[in-house]
Specification:
- This protein is mostly helical.
- It has one domain.
- The chain has 14 helices and two strands; from the N terminus they run αααααααααααααββα.
- It has a two-stranded antiparallel ribbon.
């Protein structure tokens, strides 16, 4: 509080901009929390404790899908609210750290670039590294298919690795910084539960998967719009729309199809879907260009979040 009195503290709306800027700067420079103290890793351990056989898995899964994300969001809301009571500077620092924990922007871009580079020099290592991005069996994938997987993942995961959390924060921050952090953490928790339990073989994860589909409906489509803008090709959304429903997910196809159209490349998961089949798989240079488009779209997402946070549309 003493420090606050010596420094001009901006208003609540400006504080949300500061938090967004700090969290994004942390992601770009630091990339990730150490795993031993990463809030998402901690949450994942909690989810893992419930990944077992249940007598009524769907009922248990529904309860978990609601309770665990709300608990995670509530915990970070409470921590941030308490920090703000200790002083604005402390509160902003804690809010930025908490929001940063929901991002995976730089890690996504770095891993995609690494896989793309390795496809030209060491395809076997690329097959090993691509497992950090996609769940498909990489053993028989060609270098071109590995590059496709890296580009697909970069486009798809832009939504849950950055766009979703920053937009959730921006909307919640119109109420308070703590509410913004809580909203972002809740959304990230929903994503995490889906990634861990949302498989057809796990009935306990059915509700988590459906909740993630609903929560990511808007971020996926905003991501597609941002990718089209980043590529200076607004028509890419329209051209990619016929392919957007080919992936099983109701959301992932939107950013992937838009990027396939904007970059004029074929993206394909063998045995599952092909986007823009009349084009060729991305070369190393084209794949790198696709990742650059994703990187620019991420910057635009933060700018959009600042605009939303300052719009004060929530009473």
């Amino acid at each position: 509080m003493v420090v606050d009195s010596l420094i001009r503290i901006p208003g609540a709306v400006e504080l949300s901009t500061v938090v967004l800027a700090l969290a994004f700067a942390l992601d770009v420079t630091v990339s990730e929390f150490p795993q031993r103290v990463h809030p998402v890793v901690w949450f994942g351990r909690v989810v893992g404790a419930f990944d077992s056989e249940w007598r009524h898995p769907r009922a248990v899964g529904l309860g978990l899908a609601v309770a665990l994300p709300l608990a995670a969001g509530g915990a970070l809301w409470a921590v941030t609210a308490l920090a703000l009571r200790l002083g604005t500077i402390v509160g902003v620092a804690v809010a930025a750290l908490a929001l940063f924990s929901t991002f995976s922007y730089r890690m996504l871009l770095d891993t995609a670039r690494e896989v793309i580079t390795l496809t030209a020099s060491d395809p076997d290592t690329a097959r090993s590294r691509v497992k950090a991005l996609v769940g498909r069996d990489a053993g028989s994938l060609s270098p071109a298919q590995l590059r496709s997987g890296a580009v697909e993942s970069a486009a798809e995961n832009l939504a849950d690795g950055l766009v979703g959390p920053v937009l959730a924060f921006a909307v919640g921050a119109q109420l308070s910084l703590a509410a913004g952090v809580g909203a972002a953490a809740t959304l990230k928790a929903v994503n995490t539960m889906d990634s861990m339990l949302g498989y057809r073989s796990k009935s306990v994860g059915t509700a988590a998967a459906r909740l993630d589909d609903m929560a990511m409906w808007l971020p996926a489509r905003v991501s597609a719009l941002l990718l089209a803008v980043a590529a200076w090709d607004p028509g890419a959304i329209r051209r990619g729309r016929p392919w957007a429903d080919r992936p099983a997910s109701p959301n992932s196809g939107w950013p992937m199809a838009t990027l396939a159209a904007a970059a004029s490349v074929k993206l394909s998961k063998p045995g599952a879907y092909t986007l823009n089949e009349i084009a060729s798989y991305p070369t190393v240079d084209r794949a790198d260009a696709c990742v650059r488009i994703v990187a620019i779209a991420g910057l635009l997402a933060v700018v959009l979040a600042v605009v939303v946070a300052r719009s004060e549309v929530v009473a």
